[in-house]
Design brief:
The protein has nine helices and seven strands. It is of the alpha/beta class and 276 residues long. A seven-stranded mixed β-sheet has the order 3-2-1-4-5-7-6, sandwiched between helices.
Length: 276
């Protein structure tokens, strides 16, 4: 069963999670080992094509900031199954991935081993992150939107910033609509506006250097509220049809319609000369 915004509906027991680590561990155990594991790290439990479309649009939106960085010290926050860590390591970066879930981390290690890639994977929490080292690139993809308490989310941004080297970059990809919207909020998800991120980054001493759209075409957001009401075969067919229609449009329009995008890439640097 799928919730209004594509997150797999939790059972009554699941909904009473004691901590985010429990939620992510359950999510990982359910989906991390299926096909490419995208249902664990993209839209929870959605069909393969739907999550593949999300992955492709995210890859396109992030590409300008993930290329040409050979040997860069990189921190992948909420690394999950290693989706980004492995891609960055394959490009010659020195990657450290962190996650809350032991299952996610084990899956990431196994995937790295199979591809003979060297990555360091650690169990850590963005809300209390203290690695005592800095990175040229700190990447966080759809992590902050799952920290529902706004104070904890803002504190996490400060924590991420403290791990950015003086001339490094913090690259976020998060649900960041232009206007405040609560329609997709849940016990595990909060959408915060782009202005909220600008303010939180400014308070952390960082300035936003670039913003890029990810998914401006609204068909997914039109379909999702009805998804859980459909019988399973129709739901899967609808989700895959929406993905097939949306992918080429999101792919083409994202660079030009950033304000209309639900998700955005937000790139930040230190606002002034900073020493670690």
């Amino acid at each position: 069963m799928i919730s209004r915004c594509g997150e797999a509906a939790l059972t009554s027991a699941d909904s009473q999670v004691a901590a985010p680590s429990i939620y992510w561990e359950a999510r990982a155990r359910r989906f991390a080992l299926r096909t490419r594991g995208l249902a664990a790290v993209c839209s929870y439990g959605m069909p393969w094509l739907y999550n593949t479309a999300i992955d492709l649009c995210q890859r396109r939106a992030l590409a300008p900031w993930l290329i040409g960085r050979s040997n860069a010290r990189t921190l992948d926050v909420g690394c999950g199954i290693g989706r980004w860590s492995l891609r960055l390591a394959a490009r010659g970066m020195a990657v450290t991935g962190i996650d809350l879930s032991d299952c996610m981390l084990q899956c990431a290690r196994e995937r790295a081993g199979k591809r003979q890639l060297t990555c360091s994977f650690l169990k850590a929490d963005a809300t209390d992150l203290r690695l005592n080292r800095c990175f040229d690139l700190v990447l966080s993809v759809t992590v902050l939107q799952h920290i529902v308490d706004p104070d904890q989310a803002a504190r996490s941004i400060v924590n991420l910033a403290t791990h950015v080297a003086p001339k490094g970059e913090l690259v976020l990809l998060e649900a960041a609509p232009a206007r405040d919207s609560r329609r997709c909020d849940s016990s595990t998800f909060r959408a915060r506006t782009l202005d909220w991120y600008r303010g939180a980054l400014a308070r952390a001493g960082m300035r936003v250097d670039a913003v890029r759209g990810v998914d401006p075409f609204p068909l997914k957001r039109v379909m999702l509220p009805y998804y859980q009401r459909m019988v399973a075969p129709l739901a899967v067919l609808s989700a895959n049809a929406v993905a097939a229609i949306s992918l080429p449009l999101d792919w083409t329009l994202a660079p030009y319609f950033r304000e209309r995008s639900w998700h955005k890439v937000i790139v930040a640097r230190w606002a002034s000369e900073h020493s670690s």
